[in-house]
Design goal:
By secondary structure, the protein is an alpha/beta fold. The protein is built from 11 helices and 9 strands. The strands form 2 sheets. A 5-stranded parallel β-sheet has the order 2-3-1-4-5, sandwiched between helices. Strands 6, 7, 8 and 9 form a 4-stranded mixed β-sheet that branches.
Length: 287
């Protein structure tokens, strides 16, 4: 068993490849709709004041796997907290195993995990424009504009959230040129690579427990960043037994206690080690 992260450029038939690979491997697919439901269902308190309405629902009718600008614009002011929220969801999904994660920076969040396979589908700009032109019955100029804008938005979103470039080949175990192969062949390659990975790096209970601990740590960090967005040096480490260690700079004893109480109230947190440092601001007033 393993976890696959699959990302692609617009016009690379990513949805079709993901579906065929999932069918062959009997894996679950997780994309933007699933991420949306997890956020809306599990993190309603975090997004209090963000209206999830029909307009937002319509953003999931497109073929791109990343969050669309309508949602991105509503979350961008919560950059650090949202990046950790997304990371916590990715770790949580990875802990379920036998899953294909579509986009959302999964290859970056899970880059050091041995039981994951990171796949990228790519093609030339001209090829992708032709594909989109045929799929959506567009003029050449309209297709070129759509592909260019989509490339810009996808790169910008991951760069904004994780300060990383999705085009960096170092993130991927397997890069497939979609111009040379059909959907079946690409799915076959991915399935074969996963089977090889499973034999060399089988998923253990320790792996699954570490994913749960990383998910908890990111979730705690999300909540702290939401309540105290200007905190400096925040670091959160969660153990597999639910012990959370906090560090960072706080303005006073009361703030330190409030953060600890907030974290202690979260599900799956069994104990808190509060190593936060109280930093007093110098008084520059005239005496």
């Amino acid at each position: 068993m393993a976890v696959i992260t699959l990302s692609w450029q617009l016009g690379c038939l990513g949805e079709h490849v993901a579906e065929e690979a999932a069918r062959q491997l009997d894996y679950k697919l997780v994309g933007k709709k699933e991420f949306y439901r997890m956020i809306a269902g599990q993190y309603a308190q975090f997004f209090k004041g963000v209206k999830f309405d029909e307009t937002l629902d319509r953003t999931f009718e497109t073929t791109t796997e990343e969050f669309q600008p309508a949602l991105f614009d509503r979350l961008r002011r919560r950059h650090a907290a949202y990046a950790n929220l997304l990371s916590s969801l990715i770790y949580e999904i990875a802990g379920q195993d036998k899953t294909i994660i579509k986009g959302h920076g999964g290859q970056i969040v899970l880059t050091k995990q041995p039981h994951t396979l990171h796949v990228r589908l790519t093609g030339s700009f001209d090829y992708r424009v032709t594909e989109i032109q045929q799929q959506r019955v567009l003029s050449r100029a309209a297709a070129e504009e759509l592909v260019s804008e989509d490339d810009f938005e996808r790169l910008g979103l991951i760069r904004y959230l994780f300060q990383r470039e999705t085009t960096n080949v170092a993130w991927y175990d397997l890069i497939i040129d979609v111009e040379r192969l059909d959907v079946q062949a690409m799915a076959d390659i991915i399935a074969g690579a996963v089977q090889s990975l499973e034999s060399r790096y089988p998923t253990t209970q320790a792996h699954l427990e570490s994913m749960a601990a990383l998910a908890l740590g990111s979730r705690v960090k999300t909540i702290v960043q939401k309540g105290w967005p200007n905190m400096a040096g925040l670091d959160v480490v969660a153990s597999t037994t639910g012990i959370v260690t906090l560090s960072g700079n706080v303005a006073g004893k009361k703030e330190k206690e409030n953060i600890e109480q907030q974290v202690q109230s979260l599900p799956d947190v069994h104990d808190v080690v509060n190593n936060m440092t109280i930093v007093t601001r110098p008084d520059y007033s005239m005496k």
